[in-house]
Structures are given as structure tokens and as C-alpha cells.
Amino acid sequence: MGAGHTHRLYRHAHSPVHALPPHTKLAAVLAFVVVVVSTPREAMWAFGAYAVLLGLVAYAARVPAGFLLRRLLIEVPFVAFAVLMPFVAEGERIDVLGLSLSVNGLWGAWNVLAKGTLGVAASVLLAATTELRELLLGLQHLRLPPLLVQIASFMIRYGDVITDEMRRMRIARESRGFETRGVRHWGVLAKSAGALFIRSYERGERVHLAMISRGYSGSMPVIDEVTVSRAQWSYALALPSAALVVCVLGWVL
Fold it and tell me: Membrane-spanning residues where (predicted)?
């Protein structure tokens, strides 16, 4: 985890949220999601309050609303699932605009949409303010098993390596006049996929041997030691703390 790695979800900016240590942000987002999931679905006002809290975080992080909304499109499959719930769920039914809908299905759809959207929004804000390398370091500081952190680190880096290899192979095919026009060309694509697998496997072996020759013994060295002050922890936990107050009120009121 020596070299930096910027992903597409990251938005470079100089803000108090960007400056927070990564493990404090990870802990804050995890705590926020747990609080949101624990909120009763009938407390609809509470989810509006959670959205306002996330909006304040986005404002502090200088993340534009358009950027956040575009990234929320990733939850479209879950939205489609939620839309179907009132039609297929059983139990008491009501008529809405001439459609017979299940009451339990309506509540279930609202539950999935509200909590899922808030969780995805919190994750997008985390990704927009924290680079991948910092996220991995944050997981390491939170005492996640080192082997899992290393697997995630290699997966991220090899994802880019394999994507770049696929791009070069595509350019090589096109430079020789190859165009995918039907089933009869699938054999060429299958051979390309096999060659890509072999090249990736061989490269992985070479990297492993290079790591062993440099003294790798099963754990990656921590290059950046991050010290966290109480003020930083307080700033990071302000979001889940405020959400916890809303959750308690949601159960009481």
C-alpha cells in the first residue's frame, strides 16, 4: 500500500471531512448505518432528519448535490425490488389509484428505500472524501484481519492491471481488423479471455516471488502512522451521535 490510488468516486477537495483520519470516518459511517437500520420504519420524520444530517456533511465536505445524486443511481436495482413489494406481498390490502396494494408491502418498500438510500448516500460520502489507500489503512487501524486487508489491496490494484491488459488486447484485435459481429466470433473472445487469465496468473506469481525476495513474511508494513486527537474523534462521531438522538426520539414519540 505504498503508492496512492485514486478512484472515480473520490472528489479531491480541502475540507474538514477530507482531513479526518480514515478510520474515524469508517467508524462514523458504520455507526450511522447501524442507527439508521435500528430506526422504526413508522418514524418517517426521522429519516428526513437523517437526510438533513447527511446534507450537512456533504456541505462540510464540499460535495455537490449533483455528484452525490449521480452516485446514488447504483441503488436502482434495489428501487426496482422495492417497487414490486406492494404488489407481491400478502396481508391487508388497500386501493391506490385503482391498484390493489399490500399494506405490509408498502411499509416494506418504504423501509428498503429509506434505509437503503441513506446507507448508500453515507457510503458515497465516505468514498468521495477518502482515497482507496486511506480506506485500506483505516481498516488496518480498526484491527481488521491483516490478510483481508491485503486481499482487498491486491484486488484493487490488480483490477486496474487486468482492465489495462484487456484494453491493450482489444486494441490489438481491432488493429488486425477484428470486429465482434455475431456468435461466430465468440471463439476469438473466449481465447482472449483464456490468454488474459494466463497472463494475470503469471503476473501474480512474479509479483509474489518479488515480494518474497524483498522479505515479505505475511504482513505489509505500515508506512503512515496516523495519530488521532480527541477533537477529531468528536468531529467524526458527531454524525452518528446526532443520528442516535433522532433514533431514540423515533422510538419514544
Answer: 43-60, 72-89, 109-128, 233-252
CB 203 within 8 A of CB 161: yes
Report d(CA 48, CA 52) in Å as an integer: 6
**Secondary structure in 3-state letters for 172-213:** HHHHCCCCCCCHHHHHHHHHHHHHHHHHHHHHHHHHHHHHHH
User: pLDDT, tens digit, for every residue of 6-19?
Assistant: 567 788 888 999 99
Query: What residues form DSSP beta bridges with 94?
Result: 101
Cell numbers placing 92: 391487508
pTM of structure: 0.80
> Are 131 and 25 contacting, i.e. CB atoms less than 8 angstroms apart?
no
CA atoms of 35 and 56, how far apart (whole Å): 17
Which ranges of the chain does DSSP label H, i.e. alpha helix?
16-19, 22-38, 44-60, 65-71, 76-88, 103-129, 132-141, 146-175, 186-213, 230-236, 238-252
94: three-class secondary structure by DSSP? strand
